[in-house]
Design brief:
Shape: globular
Number of strands: 17
Organism: Streptomyces variegatus
Largest sheet: 5 strands, mixed
Number of helices: 18
Enzyme class: hydrolase
CATH superfamily of the largest domain: Creatinase/methionine aminopeptidase superfamily
Radius of gyration: 26 Å
Strand order of the largest sheet: 6-5-4-1-7
GO molecular function: manganese ion binding; metalloaminopeptidase activity
Helix content: 25-40%
Structural class: alpha+beta
Distance between the termini: 69 Å
Cofactor: Mn(2+)
CATH class of the largest domain: Alpha Beta
Keywords: Aminopeptidase, Hydrolase, Manganese, Metal-binding, Protease
Number of domains: 2
Amino acid sequence: MTVAEELTPATPDESEEPIKQRKNGLYPGVSDELAENMKSGWADTELRDLEPIPQAAETAARRAALSARFPGERLVIPAGNLKTRSNDTEYAFRASVEYAYLTGNQTEDGVLVLEPKDEGHEATIYLLPRSDRENGEFWLDGQGELWVGRRHSLTEAGQLYGIPASDVRELAGALREATGPVRVVRGHDAGIEAALTDKVTAERDEELRVFLSEARLVKDEFEVGELQKAVDSTVRGFEDVVKVLDKAEATSERYIEGTFFLRARVEGNDVGYGTIAAAGPHACTLHWVRNDGAVRSGELLLLDAGVETHTYYTADVTRTLPINGRFSEIQRKIYDAVYEAQEAGIAAVKPGAKYRDFHDAAQRVLAERLVEWGLVEGPVERVLELGLQRRWTLHGTGHMLGMDVHDCAAARVEAYVDGVLEPGMCLTVEPGLYFQADDLTVPEEYRGIGVRIEDDILVTEDGNRNLSAALPRRSDEVEAWMAALKA
């Protein structure tokens, strides 16, 4: 048996499993001499006197609220594990929102555990420690330090996140032996869930997930700042796209997607969701993310995109732009109707208003225009009662926004869709009109035109603030903005 076959990596579930060698790797093994050589001669790189992450005070307050909601119960919130993309390559890791919201940490295999005490809970963050240099994991394992980069030591992690850190490889065994009531956020770490399989119930775990979703409905000051940062980068990304529309015409929608992605990666963590770069009739497909179509002068480009910050907060903005810089008469007619609907929707966003009010206000304007144009028989009240406008409006007028593009999705209906707006809530207002290319119920000149305008709106004490107001919305302002950028 070679030394390589005896080496064991630091993995959460199988700490005694030998480090895997590639079947067709060029080095079949490691000599004793090389293994010994690799153990020594390395400088001390421990980071000392680290400052806590900027949101440490906020994450502590969030954990305190969680502790108060579930006294006397062990709470387990995993970050999740790497997912294989193909063979031995993985998707870029993104920690579960619940875990990142409560810790600020974003590394794979992490688990936050709140252990019940006489008063409240004691929090521990369980992480993989730095790669082991004694067993060779740091240079032989595919997730070792020399392959994918340095992990923080447990001491460093404790300083950064303000939570005592322990070795996650010991957690599953400890959870199997633990007694007392426990809840876990499901769907992120199969190993942790298996360790708790006889201790949890789906109903109790769902209560935990719902609470954490509703906790994010009202954003704190740090979150509002991150959302504004995401929007500001997104505005610059839209400007980037307008400047290269001629190159997109020579290639495809993917040039637009790639241009925006560059801004997202330079200024943020990633895009917050798959960019929709829908030109021409593709704008009538709500989630057009193939982005492989032609970009033609005289048609419209519907660009729905958002930068995600390094702390996972995402913007979600849509503009519908004339590719040649000028709206045609029919394009302007449809665009202006959507703009009027959005204006009505934004005006309805204020503290104390029903969440549904902005949707109802926008839909009423669109229904009025459809009746006015003779596309559907009135009166408007009948159209709205029967939902007849939905043939061309299709979707709801907005959603909560935050660490997920459709944030707080697990919240109770009475707290979300049937709830009331409060200062600190952030939502999108995004009405649209979509006339499918094969829709024989509308005049031919309408067919293949899709328009959506979307902005990110913060509820304030006295009304609302449009976080994405730096991007023009009115049709004449859009034309002037595009002309200035192209000049």
